[in-house]
Inverse folding.
């Protein structure tokens, strides 16, 4: 065990995700379990620079496991991109006698953590908290499962009105670079078509497919569109195009937006967050640094930051086939 | 009892609302209870014109009380605005031996029903089914309570991310002419400000108020905007205006859209729908026509169509005061 | 305005109900609005005796409107039944310069509040917070609407498994003396039979009815049982009786229990709580005391404690008829 | 490809689970995709014996992906345990020109399917549908994820009232032989203690632990109890024991029961069901039989029935440690 570590700081950074509170709670309680002190940093790296720290013990985090958002708040920090900012942050950690840092967030967070950790030879471990599931080396990121459930519940509601009115709905979900949310929620919600950044369907093929479904007897349809998809990027324009060319339907657009980031985390995300928090403290005590704690095939694993950040997740071809078959 | 009535038709028309299925089910079962035949009409008045009828008995409507949307589907019918269309509709009713009609919908539905009923001296009773709660003579319309719960659940999620990031969110809810959904969901969701069509706040007053709240220590805010509000009509423009003038916040927009029309109805809406369906069949058997069945002070009442349509509901000043006090 | 009142205490007492936090929040913010001080009392009357007070300002109650339970906690107090206990409570109010009390709870709470208020000539106003909806003089109590939704969501789930297996389910819901929850949730959930304390159906009639339904083609059934119903009191025994006499079904029992008391309040309960809290502070400032703030026909009203407690609510015959017709 | 297979039958058997409808739908649509006919069998093996078949095409299964339960219904069949019953079943399959069977269920289902398949040399593929997650060779069974979410949502509600009243709640969840639901939902719901069949804690150790927590400042507690746990089997007795020995708390019991089997499936379960249904049809066309389609490390896999049934899943020691640390 790393005897040097007596006090751990924990922060959340980047876009918030359901389950971040559960992850903070886990880091705090795992610290208490190992009789370490724990301190929370508000507003991610920016709060570290500005010295916004709060002492946290096992009781401080009660009734947080089920709360959406992050009570430590999150922010993106421009100051942390500059050495001057990072030096202030380091000074604040030292002033507060912090020996190690757990950073909960996505690839931006891990990039910042890597630079910071190497610059000051400071132990840093990351926990993947983002709804986008776009981190390499972990099967799931905290918040992703909850976001999927939020999306399908919303689309289930939209389907009620779609099928009452023989309408075609374009539903935009999050995913600037990754189609995971669109693809999984599209299958889960029984979407007719799913448009993702990784594949450019083209408007002609989309139209052909919609016409075919209409002929096969479908009277209403849901199209799930990832915000980063080529033809779906301008979703209003796409809707107009379809409406013009497919007059049998009344075409409507719904952009789900920020409801996807909130809500009480699913059981899966709460358990995942609890496991990764414990794993993060274990790793620090074991002398590890510059790694992310993830989950692979149901086991907690340690992944170098470089791998977590740089690798590119590929879209699952099997899922695309399943989506195609389901919308027959 | 009106011995003439042996067969009742039921339809849903206009915008769909959660609880419409429960209302159809109630009309069907109340008909069965009184040993009347019942027939459903697809797609509202349009289906009546096109002769889309389906026989419904007590078992046909099982497992529908909890379903969103309307399994009879709904539509707006231009043909029904012309005498020719209505004559076809009347002929179809006669051909199917229908003696009376129950029309579930909003003011457009009741307007059509009034004209049709008078034109052919045909018994018609209405049931208020619309999320807008904008019908005179009934305390609540079917679907309104469910829509309010859908809105606050969505805003609860948005608040998670708003308070994690110190953001100001503009959330657009339904309500082209009526601010009921905005006002009630705004209070329920703890909104900072609520913008409704009935009151023009003006951008200056809004800005003053937001600045005051910020000073009072609020770090994130939700503004609920009815789609018909004067300054909120162009919600993107309003967001830009606020962002320009209130740089402390990051301003974001979410348009809830059609999720507000769907979902499994609340208990209140299911019970209301069940009561009004029974009341509609009772009224027809009692020889009544050209009335809407509503609820006032927990009692089922009968209201002339003219009153239901023409009266204008006023916004509740007490609620506006409560909203002001809650956002102190 | 009552210039004497400068500081208000607020407490929750008796069984907890969703929306109690929203009611506390409203009393606190209405106090702030009128520039009064506000103090919370933990654990109801018991905390008043033991001097557990906490200062509350407008910011103390942020993010509470959507929380179930009561952050001031609740308890039943035996000590408050004795003069000695009440004298201690009064002394603590004086010591804390409290000029008036708002008590949120049910009839037990109002009974205690009446005695206390008269004994010490101390201004007390009540707010009805109980899931049972068994208070006279108000159309709804805070928490009732939420409890109904919790019950129907649970029964919707049970119906999935009931209809998958051709089972008959007895579902016990709260209601020792009042059948309101059973009757409304039974209609909302599409129950076959609803057993309530106000009516003794008798096992023979129940059995006859179930046999009739089975013959009419129903393959699964839900019976909603209020815990205080005559034949449903011993629900295991009732299940055995039905199983013995109706072997076509597999009979199962589910007791919903305490999940009915929890959960995020519905929009209706949040708005009701907000309105009643404002009404309570208004009433105190207006020199009123020994009254409950309720809602009748959508208006906030003031009701003497005596009326609220002693009156007996009757079960709505129309609802019983609707329930009968719906289960045809 | 197995050219022999032109018609596939699908059935659900054993305890129902959320997502079974999504699995049926997937088998039906995958059949349609491969231009095979598909027929549903009602009530599992019993319906196969009694010849209850229904033709299913791609449109028959619309709007089923989000429905709880199983529209094909499920049952346990004693007749299928006898050769005579199975011979009738086989004759019915032949009469309906069925070439292969997909059986959705748990270990009982697979045991029956194995015997049947070998007896008549009939192609059978299984899909794991059970909330218990007690099948070997698949990381998850369909329905398990949904059940976990149902449990934590219920416990979240119970916690509201537990913490309002300083109570200790024993919450019984499903799991006669396997503690997976208890362990995961216990961590997810922030339980103080989790009692599972795989570990016998003993009442003394439980009591010690509860006393320690009380001293550490906890004022309310949730204990999650799997129905098959040694000391939790008689949950009423356990509650009495704790109440007698730990008088500071008020001890309450809630048995969640059959709500755990119902409800709209989670996104994970819908996607899993969709993938496994496609995998089952693929396997049959590929000439495979006597296997279960499962998921391992995010990939669809084929597992011999023998392995799926006989293997014993071990409880995850890491999860037990996480649970211990979280309840510090």
């Amino acid at each position: 065990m790393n005897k040097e570590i007596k006090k751990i700081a924990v922060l959340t950074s980047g876009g918030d995700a359901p389950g971040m509170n559960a992850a903070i709670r886990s880091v705090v309680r795992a610290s208490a379990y190992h009789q370490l002190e724990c301190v929370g940093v508000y507003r991610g790296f920016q709060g570290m620079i500005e010295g916004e720290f709060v002492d946290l013990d096992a009781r401080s985090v009660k009734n947080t496991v089920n709360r959406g958002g992050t009570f430590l708040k999150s922010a993106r920090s421009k100051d942390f991109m500059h050495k001057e900012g990072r030096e202030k942050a380091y000074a604040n950690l030292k002033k507060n006698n912090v020996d190690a840092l757990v950073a909960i967030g996505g690839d931006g967070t891990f990039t910042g953590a890597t630079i910071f950790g190497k610059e000051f030879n400071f132990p840093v471990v990351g926990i993947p908290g983002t709804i986008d599931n776009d981190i390499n080396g972990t099967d799931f990121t905290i918040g992703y499962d909850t976001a999927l459930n939020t999306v399908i519940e919303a689309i289930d509601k939209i389907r009620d009105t779609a099928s009452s009115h023989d309408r075609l709905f374009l539903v935009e979900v999050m995913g600037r670079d990754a189609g995971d949310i669109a693809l999984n929620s599209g299958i889960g919600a029984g979407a007719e078509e799913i448009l993702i950044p990784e594949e450019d369907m083209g408007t002609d093929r989309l139209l052909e497919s919609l016409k075919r479904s209409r002929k096969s007897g479908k009277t209403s349809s849901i199209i799930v569109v990832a915000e980063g998809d080529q033809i779906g990027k301008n979703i209003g324009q796409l809707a107009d195009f379809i409406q013009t060319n497919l007059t049998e339907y009344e075409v409507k657009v719904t952009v789900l937006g920020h409801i996807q980031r909130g809500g009480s985390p699913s059981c899966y995300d709460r358990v995942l967050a609890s496991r990764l928090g414990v794993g993060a403290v274990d790793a620090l005590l074991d002398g590890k640094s510059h790694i992310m704690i993830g989950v692979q095939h149901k086991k907690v694993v340690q992944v170098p930051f470089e791998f977590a950040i740089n690798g590119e997740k590929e879209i699952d071809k099997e899922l695309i086939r399943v989506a195609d078959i389901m919308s027959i």
